[in-house]
Amino acid sequence: MTARKTVSVFALALTLVTHAYAACECGFSLQTSNSTATFFTHSLETDFLHISSVAYSGIEGTPWQPQIWNRTAAQSRGAYGRSNLLENIVPNPLPDGTWSGPGARGGDPGLQLIVRKDIVDGMVTGAELATSRTDILYGTFRVGMKVTGINGTCSAFFWYRNDTQEIDVEYLSKNTSIVNTILQSGAAAAQGFDAAGTSTYQKYDAGMSLSDEYHEYRYDWLPDRVDFYLDGVKISTYTENVPDAPGHLLLSHWSNGNEGWSMGPPAEDAVSTISYVKAYFNVSGGDEVDVCSSGTAVCQIPEHSGQPGLDGKPTFFFSPPPPQANSSTGTTSPTHVSSAPNTRLTILSRFAWMVVSLLLSIS
After folding, report:
1. β-strand partners of 119
2. Rounded to 5 degrees, what are φ and ψ at 22?
3. pLDDT in tens, 68-127
4. Which residues contact 201 (CB under 8 A, 6 or more apart)?
5. Checking phi first, is residue 135 left (phi over 0); if not, alpha (psi -120 to 50) or beta?
6. Beta strand pairing status for 299-300 and 37-40?
7. Residue 216 Cα distances to 184, 228, 230, 292, angstroms
8. Residue 131 in contact with residue 161, Cβ under 8 Å?
9. How many other CB atoms are there within 10 angstroms of residue 29's CB atom?
């Protein structure tokens, strides 16, 4: 192939891929269970498999902030207090460009949230992260996570505004097959913030130990309901106590010795590992969707089915995953955030590279 032909082929590929990345400028579409489409204007996609550093100021190139605080036993409503420590948020990255195998520290790759076995000043130490933005209002939220199998902790992926407007997916390691789906409400507050027995609390038995593999935990928050999913299968729906005001997302791993919930502390350090978070949502007062130039430039959010195994294939993001996400140069970011979504790695981009391959093969 001549140099001119080579340049032409890759110029074509660049044009096609650029066109593909611009396909989401009008937002994201979620196909709901009643066959109607819901649209979201914002996205947040974080690849935790390739994060290599954490600091008090935040997690490398992401909108996630470590939450560092102490609570007494009375404040945490348990036998012990709770303490979130920065050293309990531990990166265990895969090598750049790889999507399987052990992390740099050995074992399960991703961002480790650790609950320690030792009591410190009457508190069990754990880990928590929150998004910096607090204006998230409705959306679909997904986390890839491998939970601990060590008894005595709670792993949680939740949206929070206040103690009576909260959407929770919680896993208690005392029962490794159960997913707890919860909408905290005034009814729960009236029972000492115990949602058990309210209309918006359910236990789902997955029929397997959830600590053996990574699973995707998801909730779709719409104005009239909240749907919960495990590995793409709907496990519960609530139409009461649905939050109606903005808040933020959190990831947490904790214990306070409460015999009715987390139990603990664990007999040994317990680790839950995060591989990704994907969120597509609206914001309070947001009108960015008005800037889009074409009403057809909307990306349909793909349905996930099955466990998000680390099989060597890149995790799907609308934005292309950075090839050097944990590079020391700091020139790339493991999180893709958009306020008027404008990137996509879907059919058009794959088609572009198919065209390149075909042209190369016949040149």
Report:
1. 124
2. -85, 0
3. 999 999 999 999 999 999 999 999 999 999 999 999 999 999 999 999 999 999 999 999
4. 180, 181, 182, 183, 188, 195
5. alpha
6. unpaired
7. 22, 11, 6, 31
8. no
9. 16
What tens digit of pLDDT does each residue of 284-341 get? 986 544 556 555 578 999 988 899 989 899 999 987 644 433 333 333 456 666 654 3
Q: Is 356 exposed, middle or buried (0-12, 13-18, 19+ CB in 10 A)?
A: middle
Residues sharing a CB contact under 8 Å with residue 272, sequence separation 6 or more, in sequence order: 112, 113, 145, 146, 147, 148, 153, 155, 171, 253
Q: Which residues are CB-neighbours of 271 under 8 A, at least 6 positions away?
A: 108, 112, 113, 114, 148
Instruction: Give the whole-angstrom CA distance, residue 322 versus residue 128.
Output: 25
Q: Which two tokens stand for residue 185?
A: 């409400």
Q: Which two three-digit tokens encode residue 107?
A: 């074992």
Integer Cα distance of 78 and 34 in angstroms:
41
Distances in whole angstroms, Cα of residue 140 to Cα of each of 229, 234, 240, 244: 11, 13, 18, 15
- Quote the DSSP letter at residue 95: P
Closest listed residue to residue 343, CA positions, set 312, 311, 318: 318
By 3-state DSSP, what share of the chain in percent is helix, strand and coil, each rounded to 5?
A: 15, 35, 45
Contacting residues for 102 by C-beta, under 8 A, at least 6 apart? 108, 109
* Terminal-residue alpha carbon distance, the chain: 6
Distance of CA 123 to the CA centre of its chain: 27
Rounded distance between C-alpha atoms, residue 270 and residue 59, angstroms: 21
* 197 φ/ψ sector (left φ>0, alpha ψ -120 to 50, else beta): left
Report in angstroms the alpha-carbon separations of 31 from 26, 140, 222, 302: 16, 11, 12, 9
C-beta neighbour count of 354 within 10 angstroms = 12
